[in-house]
Structure formats: structure tokens, C-alpha cells
């Protein structure tokens, strides 16, 4: 208890917890702490406002932002602060002035600068049980559990309720109609369970929907709990089962619940029947009736199957002593009829119609509030040689029956999915298609940047304006992985936008080598070529026009109704892909992203064409060259300095010498020219470097790299655009180097040491290193 994980434990905090006992909310201290200025935290200044002193005001000024504050939710009207905007370090809180009416102060906030302490807890449980199988199919089980639940080990107050006891007895007796045990069997099951008010199990031992099943989810009840269960079951291994029984639940002196239940299951080669039903009646603090059933019935003929499914719930909860319904009452009836082919058919097809009626409380009765019709068809065709087609198309209409109970505009939603995979001519052509349309809600996302150990993040912070404040537009994707020390964490919000979704994934591979590698003539020449195409798009739009809702190719990022987009298109054309001497490839790729954030939109796009040539003109020497031309754009309607359009051209030759599998040496060079079309900035980056890799069998490896970069840039370096144009370096002469050593100390122990350095322009040299030990069990 003296070693907390996520809070600093002071003598003041220990004293507060010792006096609080089991009242966790009382274990709190002032959340205001003078910590001095720190640009990694959300800090506040203490100021006077409207006659009130010591008001916390969010600040990034190093002269007065000296206080850290922890806010706790205390309920509306009990605090003086509300949630404010997000900074890069986290959420801020804003003071709202209270009102004074007749000399009574009325607070208008719901948060207070109070730090709730997490008390140390102790949970223990001991269980003893017995299982007596007195016949082949009959048993008696007993179990007793003792728990010790101390909610605050710093305090001896309220310790009289720490210990609790629970018991359970269960029996099953079964009779067989014949000696083989393969025919009908009759069994009866009895169970009784008791838990006293102070019993606290370490893990949940009841059904997930236990509270809903007994209508106690909204009740704060305590006392002894008694549950009794009795059931009679008639079962056949192949035919099915018939069951009937009842349950009773007593909770203290304030709740009584009785439930009757029954079930029917029947199966043969043509018929399937599954019906489950129950009826609950409760008295005491909650007077309610809860009736529900679920059924699945179908019959199969030679070439088709017809089925019916339905589900009904009628949950009426009454205000004590009246026939008025409480707000938690509800009801619905959902049924579906389906006609289709048997599941074993090679070509499967089915059509369905589904209808759902929702009921909500209307004074002393449940009235129809909304209705939804859902109809469509499903098909699956399995062909030869791994060819398969799946298709689902449906339409759902939602409308209000009573606008006073369900005030919402009618909705007509088309849902569809197509999946098609094929393989033709012994793999000469193969591909896969996935297309889906639908609708839903898109959440506006808020995010903060959290600092992590260097090399374990994605982003890096560049203080462009040198004010020591981490603004959102100062975080960039790290150009050097070893210095990435921030991650972006998205936070939940309750702001949603209705969207229409389209997803399309398409892949196509043309590989003549698979079919014609041993042929002659024109087919042998064609076997040298191959092509790989892939396209994936996931777009969400708020526009309801169907010609655009269902078209995945509409990807105008600047379109204000385009809510989010993730798109990737890539095509690679190969020549002599498997030839060890000479080969080439041509790549065309386009990536686009757009995200809806709390403050607006953020988008990026990168389109390029690339030509690659590989030539092993000597046995151990390979020449590689890549030439790329492309355009990279970024746009944000809430972050400054993040709007640019860069056209670039680069060429990267590489000469590799590999005398054996233990050694590899390379000389590399590159030249990149960039121009910002939305401004006048331009840059050139010329690089010359060398690499060496040495491997020792079973012992380890050594990797070394050195590069010299000559960079010319005519714009502002200390900016988001400058970071992109300069590749994270500086104008002038730049040097980078890396040394990495990996050593196997034993069969199960591996040691890795890595050192990175760079000398950017006129700035001081930057060194970064790390060591890692890995044990393999």
C-alpha cells in the first residue's frame, strides 16, 4: 500500500484515506499543486476574477503558468469549472462564475480542483467444494466461499463489513428409458444459492445479463440474496429436448422475483424447432412483469428451405403503488421469414423479410413508437478452382409510428456487400473483389500527444515559434525513427455526424510465368512480364445523393461533405521479376487520407510514379536505380502552416557488392528536387553514402552506415513545410551515421547496441544510442 503506481502518496493523502474508511469519495485532497513551469503539462495561473480570488486559468505563459490542477467530477451545480478545449498535452478546464441569488451562491460547474485518491484495496476469497457422483448420470455438488474485501487498507474504519459468506447446492438426477442410454432421458435439476450482503467475489460468477434478466439493473439493493432453480428436462440425443421449470430470487426484504420458463428443441433431417420462453414477475421496491420468447423454426424440402424466426420482449416496470409505467419500460417484437436453398447446396440463395416494432411507455401502457422493415436477398456461388461469389443486398426503412414517443426523421438505408474471388488458367490471372455500402455515425475525434521513450513513438515535436508551448501544429511524423518520442492518442467524444459508407477492395494479379515458364516463342517472351494491381478505399460522406454515396471513386479531399477517407491505389508492372541478372519494374501509387477531428478536417495525399532497374552485371555486384516523380499535398482547416502542395523528382542509384552471405557492402547516392506549388519554396537534397553489413553465423551481426547530404532551401526552415522539404535536416552540409551491433551471448540471450548520429548544417552534432537485451524462453 505504500508503493502506489499512478499517484504520489503524501502524508496528507495517507491521513485523508485513514479517516475516510470505505467512503472512497471522501478520500480526496486539494488538486492544486505548485510545480513551476513545464511545457509537457497542462498548467494554470491563479488569478482574481469578478471578486473571486484564486481562480484557475489555463495558461502557457512561463511567468504565471506555475500550477498543476487535477479536476474531479462532482456533479452539476457542485463545482465551478467545466470542460474546455484540448491542448496538445491534454484537456483544459474553464472557470464559470457562480450566481448569487438572495445571498445564496449557486454554482454553475460540474468539476472541482479536487484530487480523488485511489485507496489501496485487498481482495481475498477461499472456496471449498464437493462433487459427489452417486450414479452414472446423477450428481450432488456443494460449495462454500468466504471472501475478505477491504476497500481501504489504510483505514480500520468500516472494517466490520469486510468478510462475507456464500453457499451453493446443486443436484441432477437422470433416468434413461432404456439400458443403452441412447434413447429418451428424463432428468430433474435443483439448485439453491445464497450470498450474504458482504460477500464480494473476485471474478464474476453469474451470467452477463443477470441484472437485466431479473430487472435489477437500475436498483441499488443490498441484503441477503437467495436464488432457487428447479427444472425438468426430457431429452433425446438426436431428436431434441423439452424443458420446463421455475426460478425464484429474494434480495433482502425489498425484492421478490419469480420466473417461469420453458424450452422446446427438435431436429430431424427436414425440421428444426427451437423455442425458448420465460415470464418474470417482481414485487417489493420494483413491481414489474417481464415476458419474452425467442423462436427459430424451419423446414427443408429437396431444393429449398423455409424458415421463421421471431423474438419478443415485453418489460413493464410500474411506479410503486400505481399502474403508471416507469421510464425503463420497453417492448419490441421482431420477426423474420426466409426462403432459400439448403445449406449444403453449391449454389445458395435466400430472400428474407424482417419486421420490427418498438414500444415505449405511454402512461399506463406500452405504445408503438417506431417500426422498421428490412428485406433483401443473399447468395453464394461456389465454382471450380477456388472461384467463389457472395452477395448480400438489403434495404431497411425506419419510421416513427408515434412522434411523441419517437421523434426522429424517417430513414431509408440501403445495405449491400459483394465478395468475389477467382483464379483463372492455372493462376495466369487471379484476383479478389470486395464492395460494401452502408450507413452509420462518424465520431468527431479529439486527440493529444503523449511522450514515450525515444524510438517507441511516431511523432516528434518541433518548437517552431520557440515559445516552449507544445502547439498541435508543431508535431510531425519523425524522419528518423530513433528520435520519435510522441504518440497521438485519440479521445472519445459525444459528437457524431450521420454518414454513408462505401468500401471497395480490388486486387488483380497477372502472372504469365506461372503458366508459360516452360513454353517457347511468344508465350515464353510474355512470361517475362507480370502485373500486380491493388486498390482499397474506405470513404464516408454526408451527401445523400445516391450517385455519389455508392461511387467509391469520388475522392475529392476538398469536398466539405467528404467526412473521412482512406484510399490506396498501387500498380506494379514487372519485367524479369524472377531473373537473377536483370529486371525492372514500374510503379504508380496514390495514397489519400482525410479525418474528421474535433476542430475540423485534416487531409494528406501522395501520388507518384517510379521506375526501378536492377542489373547484376557481375556475379557479386548489383546495380540498382530508382527514379520517382510525384506530388505530395497536405491540408488542414484548423492548423496553421499545414497547407502545402509539393511536386518532387528524385533519383537514387545504388551499387552493392556481396562476396558471400556474411558480407555486404553498398555505395548509394540520391538527388531530390522539391517545389511547393502553393508558394515559392524549393529545395534540393544531394546525398552520397556507404553501407556495410557483416554477419557471423550463430554469433551476431554488425551494420554501419554513413551519409553526406548537401541541402539547399530558400524558405523558412523552422516550419512544418521546412521540415517536409528538408527531410528533418537543415540547409547546408549534413552528415548522418549509424552503427548497430547484435550479439548472441548464448542460445537464449541476445544483446543489441545501436548508435545514431547526425550533424545538421550549422547546428551541433546530435547523438542517440540504445541498448537492448532479449531473453528467449
What is the average of the pLDDT values?
87
Helix content: under 10%
Query: What coarse outline follows from CA principal-axis ratios?
Result: globular
Largest sheet: 29 strands, antiparallel
Index terms:
mainly beta; 6 helices; 777 residues
Explain how this protein is built.
It contains six helices and 45 strands. A hairpin with a 3-residue loop joins strand 19 (255-267) and strand 20. The longest helix has 10 residues, at 11-20. The chain is globular, with a radius of gyration of 35 Å.
Give a summary of the structure in a few sentences.
The chain has 777 residues and is mainly beta. It has six helices and 45 strands.
Protein topology:
Layout lengths: L10 H10 L7 E3 L1 E3 L8 E7 L2 E7 L8 E3 L2 E2 L7 E7 L2 E6 L3 E3 L2 E3 L4 E2 L1 E3 L5 E14 L2 E13 L12 E14 L8 E11 L14 H4 L11 E12 L3 E12 L3 E13 L3 E14 L2 E14 L4 E14 L11 E11 L6 E16 L2 E18 L5 E13 L10 E14 L4 E15 L2 E6 L7 E3 L13 E3 L8 E6 L4 E15 L2 H4 L5 H5 L2 E13 L4 H4 L12 E14 L6 E16 L2 E19 L2 E16 L7 E17 L2 E14 L5 E15 L3 E14 L6 H6 L6 E13 L4 E12 L5 E10 L2
Antiparallel strand pairs: 1-12, 2-5, 3-4, 3-5, 6-11, 7-8, 9-10, 13-14, 14-15, 15-16, 16-17, 17-18, 18-19, 19-20, 20-21, 21-22, 22-23, 23-24, 24-25, 25-26, 26-27, 27-28, 28-33, 29-32, 30-31, 33-34, 34-35, 35-36, 36-37, 37-38, 38-39, 39-40, 40-41, 41-42, 42-43, 43-44, 44-45
Amino acid at each position: 500500500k505504500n508503493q502506489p503506481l499512478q499517484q504520489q502518496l503524501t502524508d496528507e493523502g495517507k491521513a485523508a484515506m485513514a479517516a475516510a474508511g470505505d467512503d472512497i469519495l471522501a478520500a480526496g485532497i486539494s488538486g492544486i499543486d505548485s510545480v513551476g513551469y513545464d511545457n509537457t503539462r497542462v498548467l494554470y495561473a491563479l488569478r482574481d476574477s469578478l471578486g473571486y480570488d484564486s481562480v484557475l486559468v489555463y495558461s502557457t505563459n512561463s511567468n504565471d503558468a506555475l500550477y498543476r490542477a487535477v479536476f474531479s467530477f462532482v456533479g452539476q451545480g457542485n463545482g465551478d469549472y467545466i470542460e474546455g478545449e484540448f491542448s496538445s498535452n491534454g484537456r483544459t478546464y474553464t472557470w464559470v462564475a457562480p450566481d448569487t441569488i438572495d445571498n445564496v451562491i449557486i454554482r454553475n460547474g460540474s468539476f472541482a480542483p479536487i484530487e480523488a485518491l485511489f485507496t489501496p484495496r485487498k481482495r481475498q476469497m477461499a472456496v471449498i467444494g464437493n462433487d459427489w457422483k452417486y450414479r452414472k448420470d446423477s450428481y450432488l455438488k456443494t460449495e462454500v466461499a468466504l471472501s475478505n474485501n477491504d476497500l481501504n487498507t489504510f483505514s480500520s474504519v468500516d472494517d466490520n463489513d469486510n468478510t462475507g459468506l456464500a453457499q451453493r447446492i446443486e443436484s441432477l438426477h437422470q433416468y434413461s428409458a432404456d439400458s443403452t442410454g441412447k434413447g429418451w432421458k428424463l432428468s430433474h435439476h435443483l439448485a439453491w444459492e445464497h450470498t450474504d450482503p458482504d460477500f464480494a467475489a473476485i471474478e464474476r460468477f453469474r451470467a452477463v445479463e443477470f441484472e437485466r434478466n431479473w430487472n435489477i439493473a437500475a436498483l441499488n439493493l443490498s441484503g441477503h440474496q437467495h436464488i432457487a432453480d428447479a427444472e425438468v428436462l426430457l431429452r433425446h440425443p438426436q431428436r431434441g429436448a423439452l424443458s420446463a421449470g421455475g426460478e425464484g430470487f429474494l434480495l433482502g426484504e425489498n425484492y421478490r422475483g419469480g420466473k417461469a420458463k420453458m424450452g422446446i428443441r427438435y431436429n430431424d433431417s427436414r425440421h428444426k424447432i427451437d423455442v425458448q420462453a420465460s415470464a418474470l414477475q417482481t414485487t417489493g421496491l420494483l413491481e414489474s412483469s417481464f415476458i419474452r420468447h425467442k423462436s427459430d423454426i424451419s423446414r427443408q424440402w429437396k431444393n429449398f428451405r423455409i424458415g421463421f424466426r421471431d423474438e419478443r420482449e415485453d418489460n413493464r416496470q410500474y411506479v410503486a403503488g400505481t399502474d403508471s409505467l416507469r421510464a425503463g419500460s420497453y417492448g419490441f417484437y421482431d420477426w423474420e421469414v426466409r426462403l432459400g436453398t439448403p445449406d449444403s447446396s453449391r449454389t445458395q440463395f435466400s430472400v428474407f423479410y424482417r419486421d420490427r416494432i418498438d414500444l415505449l411507455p405511454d402512461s399506463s401502457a406500452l405504445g408503438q413508437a417506431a417500426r422498421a422493415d428490412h428485406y433483401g436477398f443473399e447468395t453464394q456461388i461456389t465454382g471450380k478452382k477456388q472461384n467463389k461469389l457472395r452477395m448480400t443486398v438489403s434495404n431497411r426503412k425506419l419510421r416513427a409510428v408515434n412522434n411523441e414517443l419517437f421523434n426522429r426523421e424517417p430513414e431509408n438505408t440501403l445495405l449491400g456487400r459483394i465478395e468475389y474471388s477467382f483464379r483463372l488458367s492455372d493462376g495466369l490471372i487471379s484476383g479478389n473483389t470486395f464492395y460494401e455500402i452502408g450507413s452509420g455515425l462518424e465520431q468527431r475525434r479529439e486527440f493529444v500527444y503523449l511522450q514515450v521513450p525515444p524510438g517507441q513513438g511516431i511523432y516528434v515535436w518541433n518548437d517552431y515559434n520557440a515559445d516552449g508551448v507544445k502547439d498541435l501544429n508543431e508535431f510531425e511524423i519523425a524522419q528518423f525513427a530513433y528520435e520519435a518520442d510522441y504518440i497521438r492518442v485519440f479521445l472519445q467524444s459525444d459528437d457524431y455526424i450521420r454518414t454513408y459508407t462505401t468500401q471497395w477492395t480490388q486486387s488483380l494479379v497477372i502472372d504469365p510465368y506461372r503458366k508459360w515458364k516452360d513454353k517457347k516463342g511468344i508465350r515464353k517472351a510474355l512470361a517475362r512480364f507480370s502485373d500486380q494491381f491493388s486498390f482499397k478505399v474506405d470513404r464516408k460522406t454526408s451527401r445523400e445523393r445516391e450517385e455519389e454515396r455508392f461511387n467509391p471513386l469520388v475522392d475529392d479531399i476538398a469536398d466539405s461533405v467528404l467526412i473521412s477517407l482512406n484510399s490506396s491505389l498501387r500498380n506494379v508492372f514487372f519485367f524479369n521479376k524472377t531473373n537473377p541478372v536483370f529486371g525492372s519494374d514500374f510503379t504508380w501509387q496514390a495514397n489519400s487520407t482525410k479525418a474528421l477531428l474535433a476542430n475540423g478536417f485534416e487531409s494528406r495525399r501522395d501520388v507518384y510514379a517510379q521506375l526501378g532497374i536492377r542489373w547484376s552485371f557481375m556475379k557479386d555486384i548489383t546495380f540498382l536505380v530508382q527514379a520517382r516523380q510525384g506530388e505530395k499535398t497536405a491540408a488542414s482547416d484548423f492548423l496553421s502552416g499545414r497547407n502545402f502542395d509539393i511536386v518532387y523528382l528524385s533519383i537514387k542509384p545504388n551499387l552493392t557488392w556481396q562476396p558471400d552471405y556474411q558480407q555486404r557492402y553498398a555505395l548509394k547516392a540520391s538527388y531530390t528536387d522539391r517545389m511547393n506549388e502553393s508558394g515559392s519554396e524549393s529545395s534540393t537534397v544531394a546525398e552520397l553514402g556507404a553501407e556495410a553489413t557483416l554477419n557471423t553465423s550463430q554469433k551476431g551481426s554488425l551494420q554501419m552506415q554513413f551519409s553526406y547530404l548537401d541541402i539547399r532551401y530558400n524558405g523558412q526552415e523552422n516550419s512544418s513545410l521546412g521540415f517536409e522539404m528538408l527531410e528533418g535536416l537543415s540547409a547546408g552540409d549534413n552528415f548522418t551515421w549509424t552503427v548497430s551491433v547484435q550479439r548472441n551471448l548464448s542460445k537464449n540471450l541476445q544483446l543489441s547496441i545501436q548508435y545514431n548520429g547526425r550533424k545538421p548544417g550549422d547546428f551541433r552534432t546530435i547523438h542517440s544510442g540504445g541498448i537492448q537485451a532479449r531473453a528467449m524462453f
